[in-house]
Structures are given as C-alpha cells and as structure tokens.
Amino acid sequence: MAAESPPSPPVRFGIIGCANIARKVSRAILLSRNSTIVAVGSRSLEKAAAFARDNGFPESARAYGSYDAVLEDPEVDAVYVPLPTSLHLRWAVLAARRKKHLLLEKPVALNVGELDEILAECESSGVQYMDATMWMHHPRTAEMKAFLSDSQRFGQLKAVHSIFSYNSGPDFLKNDVRIKPDLDALGALGDTGWYCIRAILWAADYTLPKTVTALSSAEFNEAGVNLSCGASLIFHDGQIATFYCSFLSNLTMEISLLGENGYLRVHDFVIPFQENVGAFYASANTKFAELSIGIEPAPIEHLVRTDVPQEALMVEEFSSLVRKVKENGSEEIEKFWAIISRKTQLVVDAVKVSMEKGFQPVEVVY
C-alpha cells in the first residue's frame, strides 16, 4: 500500500495592525485547520507584543514595531490587513509586491480606482486576493443559495431588501476610526453598507444593477462622513433591491428575498446569533388558507450547524487557495473574489456619487 502523503504545512499569516476586528480574525486563524500566525506588526513594538500575548498567539510568533517588518519577514506567506480604509492602497500594494497573499478587510478601498491598483498588483505579483466578508463562508450561505436556485420553490428573483445597522453610542460617534474623514471616509456606507450591497449582488448572481439611487434620508456628521444611508437598485431584468445601513439604529442584520414562487428571510446574516448554528426561514408556493385566516404552508425554519466559526471557514478557504498557488504557480489563482470585490465596490461608489449629486440616479458600468 502506498504511503500517505505528508500533510501540507499551514499557511503562515502576518497581521498588519491591531484593530479590534483583528482580534476576531486572529482567533479565526488559530482555529482554522490549515493556517497559523507567525508575525504581527503595529506602529509600536509594545502594542504588537501586547496584542500577540492577549490573543493567544504561538510563543514563536514575532512582534514588530512596524508594518514593513511583517512584509519583510521571509516566513510570512500571507497577510491580513485590518487597517483603516485610507491605508489599504499603500499597504495592500506593498504586500503584493513582496509576494504576500492578501486577505483584505472591507471596505477594501475608498473607490474602485484604488481597488483596481490593488488587484493589478496582486495579479502581476502572482498572489491570491480575498476580501474578508465572513458571512459568505458560513455553510448556511450555500444552503440559502440552493433554495434561491430552485425554480420550483423560489423561481425568478423579484426583490431584495437588506439592513445592517448598529448603534454603538456617543463615544463611537465621536472617536471611532469609521467616522473619521481621513481614516474611513466612507463611514456607514463602507462599513455596514458593504455587507448589504454584497448580499444584494449575491442574491442576483453578481449581476450588476442598471442604476443606483441613494435615498434622501442620508445622515452625516459634522466632518461630512456618512452615518446612515439607503439606496434603491434597479436591474436590467426588472429586479429591484433596497438597502439601509446605519451607525444610528439598533443592531439589525436582515436579508429578505422575494421570488416568483418563494420567499427567504434571514435575521442575522452578518454575524449569526449563535456561533455554531445559522437559521433562515423559507416558504414556497404559499397561499391564503380558507377564509384567509392564515397561510399555508407555513414558513420552514432551516438550521445549519457548523463546528467551525464562519470566520475560521473564511481563513481555511483562503489558505487552501494560497496553498494551491504556492504548490502549482500563479495559474491557480482564484479570481472570483477579486471580481465580486470590484462589483461590490462599484455599487458602493455609485451610492456615494448619487448622494453627492443630490440623490440622482447613477448608472453602474463594469
């Protein structure tokens, strides 16, 4: 009997920046079954060392007092970049130039022009790119897509509505990087709106809308950073979609999808209420009951369990793609993630332009 091949070594991550979201992704890297952390960099060595210690990094992981040092570390295969969006272009491009595969926090760029520079450098350097939109990696997401793809139970998609909002209080609205024009100028649109827009595109099989119109109820802080907004999206085949995103409203993470024959709703699409199970509700071919005193059949609750959190599944998928590239060369690069990042960014840009033009319709061109 032939001897089994030895397991592939784990993908070795470096982390650039010690943002709060990096705590969650660091945990995910350590929980994943094909990756590990070998380095973390901050603007101060003390902060990087404290971050490594407080988040259970391996003792062998190196702490650096600069981002450059992480990129120069020859043992780093891939980097996770959770920096403010205004810094993404510089550090993502530098990472790709130094042949580090790139897991980039969302929003991935301030505009599609910046993202195109990042993606071009990833392609020319032969490195794998993925954005860190975690919910897409939960097994629930695949099960929901299977329902949407069922012509008998769901049929043609007609309408989508998505909400992602949270209210973190006055300190957040005064001090968080996401409300600072020099750090994350896209505000709520870039942070929570990214998820809503990705959900809409996911439901529409990544077909771009024909036009995007921001709703006039958008709110801004004194520095001009968006704190809440909404938009309507019109597609070429008549589908419509709307979304609302906010830093000013109660925590809500909804997608509602209406088809010819069915309906799907999920109440926690961004972060499941429970880490090990995700629920969604689906109904198909629903009618009024006799005398219109109810409906039948009743919606069904689907529970999708996972032993591995969605963010660890994201890291595992990314690491598997990195491993393929390392073993077989750049022809193995998976371009799907770059394509859907760019489409999401295009719609983000269109909403921003619509707000700037007095909430007028804006055409979306790939």
TrEMBL record:
Species of provenance: Erythranthe guttata (Yellow monkey flower)
Q: In which domain of life is the source organism classified?
A: Eukaryota
Question: What is the protein's given name?
Answer: Uncharacterized protein
Q: Which residues form the GFO/IDH/MocA-like oxidoreductase domain?
A: 150-264
Membrane-spanning parts: none
Leader sequence segment: none
* Domain Gfo/Idh/MocA-like oxidoreductase N-terminal, first and last residues per copy: 11-130
Q: Name one GO molecular function term.
A: nucleotide binding
| Protein family membership | Belongs to the Gfo/Idh/MocA family.
From the broadest rank down, the organism's phylogenetic lineage runs: Eukaryota, Viridiplantae, Streptophyta, Embryophyta, Tracheophyta
